[in-house]
């Protein structure tokens, strides 16, 4: 018989041989033992973790008439035929090359026919995420109501590409990455069975390079066996995988940590001359640095072959390099690794990387010293300034007494108190807003409020995002409208945007039919602006009589109506103007009935809701 690859020779034939997936295998065995077999299964997970192998074992188990504890016997004719791929009732389909609607319709039509030899007709569809949308739709109905003698087993490495309607009609099993220790044990079992000697460090290196895939590990092991005859050595494993030895990585880190750029570049050039891949160089460095951090916390946490084969070197480097230094190196390595994907000269990036790593020490050493020197200098300058101010105040007290000090202290106050409000006053056009208020009516305001939502829908997405939240018309006349902003930041942005203002005015003209000027105001400033206008530009104020005592014992309806008429006749003109401008937004606070300043009470009692 022709030579077969290790992963084919040692493909699991029983659930017990499927290592690293104990949860999946136990669940399937329990279902077989209780005859709780589903019509459709979905196996997901990374490559080389046993999805297709589990599908074939399940196909054998459901059709084996001599199974024990959920395991196929592998001795009957049915099991042997499925293992050899000769049984026509077990159909394996590669969805990557059979992803059209016609292929799935053919499966759907043939699924109606009963199996010829086995008890169940099993369809194994590998890489099912490669099916087209039409193919998934064609498969959907068959998955929902399949014939009693049909079982579908779907396998995929990218379950996120499978429609939710397909997933919901299957039993999903997630295959996890296999732990390096489990891979090492399996390879050791195979090599012992083959009577081949090996280095433990070589198997650990292969397991780490396989990234959780048993098939990848056996493929690498096959290459190492071919390269080194009947002994698996660490040197051969390093050559086949392209990885760097722990000695080279440790020497490189010592060099860059010492700031020796020339020696670091020499190590890089030797590695490249030996055929090492630049991306693999960086990947190995990242793994090594990660294990340094873990080793510092607990030596048992560092599980790579670098840490397990040379713990003394790890202990030395953890003392020589602090965590901050390691974190900075990892950041630089990650950045350069991303840049390597977009360049045709990776060796140049490795040289630049070496220079960066060797100069990191100077930066980290200089930064703390500079910062420590800067802080006392700042404190000294602040203390000196305060001392000069105290001395000046003492001289003023001695020369001018209390009056001088009183005059000196408030001098700086206006500058400090006026600063917070400048950002809103700069942009509010009070003259134009007062002109709008002079011609404003409640009807015009209600009309503009009714148009505001439609106006926002006419703007583009970016403009609408600025105006969508916390804006509304608060005053309007026949030719202008005032819009308030809940958020000062948004107001400041819009007030400077002349293009947006012109766009709003153009859209308002389309909706209203007239030229409408638009002015903006922050919500926090609007009550003050409104009140100042009413006080300074409102109609003449009519003082109320000081004696507001009610008639004695009003008992009749006529008396009540007379009192109401009297009250309405004495409404302050300012209040009347506010009600005319702002409508239902105005509340009137009548104050205490025995107030001694009714005119002041009425003017301050006008306030806006919301």
Automatic annotation (TrEMBL):
MF terms in GO: ATP binding; DNA binding; DNA-directed DNA polymerase activity; metal ion binding
Biased composition (Basic and acidic residues): 601-610
Catalytic reaction annotation: DNA(n) + a 2'-deoxyribonucleoside 5'-triphosphate = DNA(n+1) + diphosphate
Segments forming domain AAA+ ATPase: 37-179
Metal-binding among keywords: yes
Presence of keyword Nucleotide-binding: yes
InterPro entries (alphabetical): AAA+_ATPase, ClpA/B, DNA_pol3_clamp-load_cplx_C, DNA_pol_III_gamma-3, DNA_pol_III_sug/sutau_N, DNA_Rep/Repair_Clamp_Loader, HLD_clamp_pol_III_gamma_tau, P-loop_NTPase
Pfam families: DNA_pol3_delta2, DNA_pol3_gamma3, DNAX_ATPase_lid
GO cellular component: DNA polymerase III complex
Region: Disordered, residue numbers: 537-566, 587-610
Name of the protein in question: DNA-directed DNA polymerase
Organism: Schleiferilactobacillus perolens DSM 12744
